[in-house]
Amino acid sequence: MDCYKKSNIEDLKAKNSYKIDLLDYSLFITFFPQLIAGPIVHHKEMMPQFHSLLNKEKALINWEFMAKGLFIFSIGLFKKVFIADSFAAWANAGFTLAQNGGTLNIFEAWVTSLSYTFQLYFDFSGYCDMAIGLALFFGIVLPINFNSPYKALNIADFWRRWHITLGRFLKDYLYIPLGGNRVSKIINLRNLFIVAFLSGVWHGAGWGFVIWGSLHAIAMVSHRIYSFLAIGKSFLNSKIYKIFAWLLTFNFLNIAWVFFRSENLSGAINILKAMFGITWVELPYKFKASWLFREIGGNDKMVGFILISFIICLCFRNSIQMLDNFKPNIKNSIIIMLFLYIALIMIGVTPYTEFIYFNF
C-alpha cells in the first residue's frame, strides 16, 4: 500500500510545523481504532493527517481507503474469531491443567505451547489489522505493527517484525537515550539487556513477565555478541544455516511464551517439564488425536489448525503485503465477503474470547 511507504510517513512528519492545541491533543488521545491496544502512534505521524482532512487537503471520504479498510478489517476479524479463538480453547485447557498441578503428556504440552504461540500472534495481529482498517475508513493511515514475525531467523529480526511500534517506542525513548549504538560494545550490550528486560516488565509485574523479559534480554545480548564475531557470509546465506537459525529462533520464542502466558510459575514449569519429557506420563495406547490430546480436548481439527498456521505464517504474504496489492474489484469483493461471512458465523457459534492484549 503506497500510503505505508517510509518516505510518505516522513513527509507527514515534516509537515508538523504547527502548534498542538487542546483540541488536537484531545483528538489524538481519543482516536478509538488504536486507543486500547495499539499500534502505538506518535503525534507527528497522526496530526498532519487529521489536519489535512480538516483543511480539505484530502477528500473527506476516500472510497479506495474505504475498500482497503474493509479488506484488512475482514482479514483481522477472520484471524481473531476463526483462528485465534480456536487456538484459545486448547491453550487455555492445557495451561489451566498445568497451573492447577495436573500433568500433560509430551504431545499435549507441545500442542499447548504451540496453540498459545499461534493464538497470541493471530489475536494481536488480527486486532491491529482491524484497527488499521477502521482508521482507513476515516482516511487515516496507522503504522504497521507486524511483519511476519515467525519468519524471523534470529531474535533481533523477530523484534523488528513483532509489535513494531512498541519496539520503535522503546528505541526512541529508552535505547537511544541510553546511548544506543554510539557507545562501547559492553555498554551497548547493557543497553540491549535493559530494553529487552523492560519490554517484559512493560506487559506486567508478574514473575512470568520478568522471566520472559530476561530470556529475551539474554537472547538479544547473545545474538549481538554473535554478530560481533567474524563469520563467513557464504555460510550465513546457506540454506542449512537459515533452517537451523529459524528452528532455533522459533523454538526459543515458543518456549519463552510459556512464561508469558502462565498465570503462575509452577504452571510454566509443569508445561516445560512435560515438553522435555522430564515428567513421566503414560501415553494412551491409541495414537489418535482424540486419545493423544484428550486432556486438552484436542482432535484432528486441532492438528490441522497447527499445520495450516505454520503454512500461513511461513509460506504466505502477511495482511499488510496483501493490502499492498489489493485492488477494489469483483474478485476481491468476493474474498472480503467470504472472510466476513466465515467470521460472523464463528462469532455466533464460539464463546466470546476477549483480545489478549486487553489484559496488559
TrEMBL record:
Pfam families: MBOAT (PF03062)
Subcellular localization(s) per the UniProt record: Cell membrane
Record-listed E.C. numbers: 2.3.-.-
Claim: Acyltransferase is one of the keywords in the record: yes
Membrane-spanning residues: 22-40, 60-78, 90-112, 124-144, 192-212, 243-260, 302-320, 332-352
An example molecular function term from Gene Ontology annotations: acyltransferase activity
Domain of life: Bacteria
GO biological process terms held by the UniProt record: alginic acid biosynthetic process
Keyword Acyltransferase attached: yes
Membrane topology summary: Multi-pass membrane protein
GO CC field: plasma membrane
Keywords from the UniProt entry: Acyltransferase, Cell membrane, Membrane, Transferase, Transmembrane, Transmembrane helix
Family: Belongs to the membrane-bound acyltransferase family.
Name of the featured protein: MBOAT family O-acyltransferase
Organism: Campylobacter sp. CCS1377
